[in-house]
Each structure stands twice: as C-alpha cells, then as structure tokens.
C-alpha cells in the first residue's frame, strides 16, 4: 500500500511539473505574439495587430488556468493529501478548479465577442453560448456550495481537521512548523456545535 501511495505521489508531481511547463510555454508564446503585434518594424494594419493581441490574452488566460491547476494539485494532493470523503475538502478542491474554468470561459467569451462583432457577426451566438455555459457553471457551483455548507454542519470535526491542516501547511511555508489549531476529534465536540465557533474549554477538576 505504501508503494502504491508513492507511485501516486510521483504521478501527481509529474502532473504539477507538466502543468507548470505548459503554463510557462504559453507565456513565452504569448510574449512572442505580443512582440509581433507591437513591433514597429512590421507593416501590419491595426486590426491585425488587435486580433494578435486578443490571441495573446487567450494564451495568457490558458496559462493562468494551467498554473492555477498545477498549484491546486500541488497543495491539495501533495501537501495536504486531500481526502475526498470530507465535504469541506470537496468544496475547497472543486471551488479552486471551477473558479479557473469560469474565469477562463468568461475571458474567452469576451475575446470571441471582440473578434466577431465586426468581422464575423454570424459567429456571435457561438461566443454567447460559451458565456451561457460559464453562467450555468457558476450558478450550479453556487448551488453546490450552498448545499455542501449544510453537509459540513453535520461533520464539524472534519472542518476542524481541515483548518488544523491548513495552519500546519501555512506554518511550514512561513518557517514555523507548529500548527495554530489542534485537530479536534468527534468525541471532543459538544452536540449542537456550530462550525466556526470556538469550542468550549473542558471542565477542570476541583482542586483538593
């Protein structure tokens, strides 16, 4: 079992490295295209330069998505070893992924509108469909977060463990490995406890 875990860890590290490589490559390609669009020595109309710059924005958007996804996999699967059975971890992992998707689709919608509004207006419905897809994902994501919050109230110990793990990871990044929050087990949480509120201190034994 330990060997299989190591294999998965190596696989995640390769995925993070490839995401980072693709993101850097897209940034380099965008810089080259931007130079071609802004190069004063090239005789090109303003409209052509504008379309090249729009393509650069699209490349940079995909680069940001690639880097953000790589960072998400690094933090959730390697540093924190995310357990998908916890509703808090599910919400955080999916939220970090979906926000990249929604922002990328929204930017692509704007790029498509700017490109097609003057040259090919018959393609505007295609750009609008991408925007509608982004809006549908955003609305569904909001509904999921609302329903998942109710599920988190049923497992306050899972939320406490996630917060303790976050403090530990942040402490390692800042050079202080001591967690600010200790993990709380299920038998230590009083009934009807609301997540986010401090836990009451255990009763002290009377002094003799």
Automatic annotation (TrEMBL):
Protein name per UniProt: Membrane protein
Composition bias, Acidic residues: 164-174
Keyword check for Acetylation: no
Bias (Pro residues): 197-208
Region (Disordered): 155-208
Spans through the membrane: 7-32, 94-117, 123-144
Domain of life of the organism encoding this protein: Bacteria
Keyword annotations from UniProtKB, A to Z: Membrane, Transmembrane, Transmembrane helix
